[in-house]
């Protein structure tokens, strides 16, 4: 198993001189974006060694000074926001507005950690009156940040910002599906920092494998697929690196009998089709109460057709599209029905339509696995309890949404859903800094918010007793 997904429309190649490169094409129309170097083991070792050399001085830098440099990183990104967003759209197909929103979110995240870092503290402890007891936060050392393609700027800002402001040095490995974006971020963000504090290595799965195998890496923060996260965890068993993993999800949406089915369909469509379904917390499976199922499904089909008419953004590449279509086709072969969408369109690029599938079996991959495409698979359930039982039965534990007017059903769902985030009556949203801890196959550790500062540090317990001084003559 490779440690990072191999590219689809991103083509990796070994050059005659022994070097490796990755070529990216635009998923919108198949036009070339460019070619980047794919770091080998020697390149990775050099990046880690540089991080190690810079580590002691960076850890000794006052937190306020580190925070000021994060503000400088944010300033640099803000000054080139349009450039970064446009490159993201070309490389991943992310809609222009969403791409710019991701850059703006990254700027805000860097500023948030710039302010939170100097305030990060642990606890005083109650001991003897004549002693002082407390815990001291210390950086872990070298952090490997391995970031995804679906929100590459905002996610990288969070992981890198939290690691740097707490005194760690960072080696950043962006997804091989957006190496140009990753390299540009590295150029912008490393500019105000001392040498070696932040290094970017672009490459494929072999690059990622070399990075996480390094014994000099003390923590690994990864956002990406479950298979990759599991492979990273296996390597960490040998190196002892601390892990922060946000991996795949199979997020359920429960539609209760008492809600407006047209409103609920709008929520389902937003959850399933935003960013062409390529969001970690996208709606992946829908359980709708039989009392409102007919109206809900009709409204969901209308919503899907509206999204298609407005123009769906492409998937990141044709390999991703092939996997989405495989899941849909396998469900249809098992008896499911496609009410709209479900066909690969003619022409270049990696487009796939907003799709509604009904009569899906619980054993189909479309209901069991992360699809990461604009597909809303629907099951009709006889009761809220039936839907909740089905929602609970998943190896993933990222997030889930409940649409209901019942306080009883709300509290029962919150209690029983084995996920890091439960959303009631809204598929997206929530207060800033609301860090969540994924469960099961979806990962471990807090990947966002103030809690990420705790993940990036260790705690040392300190006891200072009263000395007995030598008597003076």
Automatic annotation (TrEMBL):
<feature type="region of interest" description="Disordered">
    <location>
        <begin position="1"/>
        <end position="32"/>
    </location>
</feature>
<dbReference type="InterPro" id="IPR016161">
    <property type="entry name" value="Ald_DH/histidinol_DH"/>
</dbReference>
<dbReference type="Pfam" id="PF00171">
    <property type="entry name" value="Aldedh"/>
</dbReference>
<dbReference type="InterPro" id="IPR016163">
    <property type="entry name" value="Ald_DH_C"/>
</dbReference>
<keyword id="KW-0560">Oxidoreductase</keyword>
<protein>
    <submittedName>
        <fullName>Acyl-CoA reductase-like NAD-dependent aldehyde dehydrogenase</fullName>
    </submittedName>
</protein>
<dbReference type="InterPro" id="IPR016162">
    <property type="entry name" value="Ald_DH_N"/>
</dbReference>
<dbReference type="GO" id="GO:0016620">
    <property type="term" value="F:oxidoreductase activity, acting on the aldehyde or oxo group of donors, NAD or NADP as acceptor"/>
</dbReference>
<dbReference type="InterPro" id="IPR015590">
    <property type="entry name" value="Aldehyde_DH_dom"/>
</dbReference>
<feature type="domain" description="Aldehyde dehydrogenase">
    <location>
        <begin position="19"/>
        <end position="462"/>
    </location>
</feature>
